[in-house]
Amino acid sequence: MKNLSLVIFLGIIASVIILGGGTTLLKSISKSDHTIFSLYDLRCEYKTDPIGIDVLNPRLSWKISSPFRGTIQAAYEIRAGEKVEFLDEPDQLIWNTGKILSDSSIHVPYSGPVLKSRRRIYWQVRIWDNKNNLSPWSDPAYWEMGLLEQSDWTAHWIGSSIDENKTESNPSPLLRKEFTIQGEIILARMYVTSLGLYEIEMNGHKVGDQVFTPGWTSYDNRLQYQTYDVTNRLRSGSNAIGAVLGDGWYRGYLGFSGQKNIFGEKLALLLQLYIQYKDGTSEIIRSDESWRSSTGPILMSDIYNGEKYDARLEKPGWSQPDFEEKDWAGVKIIDHPKNILVSPAGPPVRKIKELKPREIFTTPSGEKVVDFGQNMVGWVRLKISGPAGTTVTLHHAEVLDSEGNLYTDNLRAAEQLSLIHISE
Predict the structure, then answer these.
(1) What is the DSSP letter of 125?
(2) Is 135 exposed, middle or buried (0-12, 13-18, 19+ CB in 10 A)?
(3) Which listed site, 5, 36, 274, 369, has its alpha carbon 20 to 30 Å from 220?
(4) Mean pLDDT throughout 319-324?
(5) How far apart are CA 194 and CA 201, in angstroms?
(6) Residue 251, CA distances (Å) to 210, 294, 395, 416, 424 in order
């Protein structure tokens, strides 16, 4: 068979996307010449300045930059405070290790006061090398805690109030909420998860750069939530949040025997927006019975089977303020536990590259094939035009058969197709 690599579609949406040798220095270093080496790449739980973590004793790491061979850390000192300006004020520090004789520069656990939800901690480190030279303090870094207690979650699980057929794929629900900001904001955090997959928009723009959120876990035991910094997304006056849900691994088709609804039958959203104002007050916008629901252009969204998208059903402006909701329904409160919520431990899935077709050709059976040159996971972006209602069908495959035609038997029961209905 000729190898052929096309997109394997995993859809929530049918949108596009897819030193050398060191220099020997002849002079010796005096103790006052400590700026000759420095510290960089400070990390907390493997991440740079993370927000929304739930590790109660976060592990800190750093790297050493030195022009000399054989430079070894002999001791370190870490200091931490609740504001970056407090780092230079000993009386304001919440934690200071003092000089610790150790060559460890990875996974040094925080051992200060008990950390609370949403608390941000700034920290710095300095080291002594094996010649007792002292580095300057590193640039400040920080970490920020997520929601650590079940009682921190005051939002409700909500789902569409539209009746669904639980035995087949259903249209992806759209959920929205408008609210008003009155005051100057200094910080805003959005904590969100879902039963199924979700994508969040605020004031018409996607929140975050992650995809396939909240990720795949053993949903009955652990459900990840994401934390987003949306401080710069909010504006004075009217604002709007929109969420689109997809079946994903939660209730989509999974396995080789057509299994469905493995973890549950109803998609749901849990969202909490914490807003802190300059005057010291705060506010929480939460998913509750005040939200509205509808469906849009995504008629079916499934990891194995693909997606059906009807552009005639698009709702322009649905995640922006002042959108007309007269045809939208209410939402249902869903009974689901919150004690299984956890912050993600690993890196998120992101869009990392865009590929252009290497070859476009017609098979002996008359199929038009677009070859992207490698096996991958992503989306297809294409421009199409035609009479309203015209259907364009995309089949996704990995190889051609011996006669040069598209071969999909290796996909077993997975349909892996996208149906696009043109709007105009």
Answers:
(1) E
(2) buried
(3) 274
(4) 97
(5) 14
(6) 21, 19, 23, 17, 33
* C-alpha R_g of the chain: 26
Segment 226-235, tens digit of pLDDT: 999 999 999 9
Q: What distance in Å separates the CA atoms of residue 155 and residue 286, rounded to the nearest whole number?
A: 5
Tokens 């997109």, located at residue: 7
In angstroms, the Cα distances linking 410 to 20, 407, 415 are: 47, 8, 11
DSSP 47: B
Those residues with Cβ within 8 angstroms of residue 380's Cβ, 6 or more apart along the chain or in another chain = 7, 9, 16, 18, 394, 418
250 Cβ contact list (under 8 Å, min separation 6): 195, 196, 197, 219, 262, 263, 264, 267
Q: What does the block give as tokens for 403?
A: 């006669």
Q: What is the pTM of this model?
A: 0.88
Distances in Å between the alpha carbon of 54 and those of 50, 146, 326, 395? 11, 6, 41, 42
Distance CA 278, CA 185 (A): 6
Residue 216 near residue 251 (C-beta atoms within 8 A): no
Three-state SS across 222-234? Answer: CEECEEEECCCCC
pLDDT, tens digit, 9 for 90 and up, residues 108-141: 999 999 999 999 999 999 999 999 999 999 999 9
pLDDT band at 268 (very low <50, low <70, confident <90, very high): very high
Q: Where are the alpha helices (DSSP H) in 236-331?
A: 248-251
For 9-28, give one letter per residue: b (16+ CB within 10 A) or e: bbbbbbeeebeeeeeeeeee
* Backbone dihedral angles phi then psi of residue 409, each to the nearest 5 degrees: -60, -30
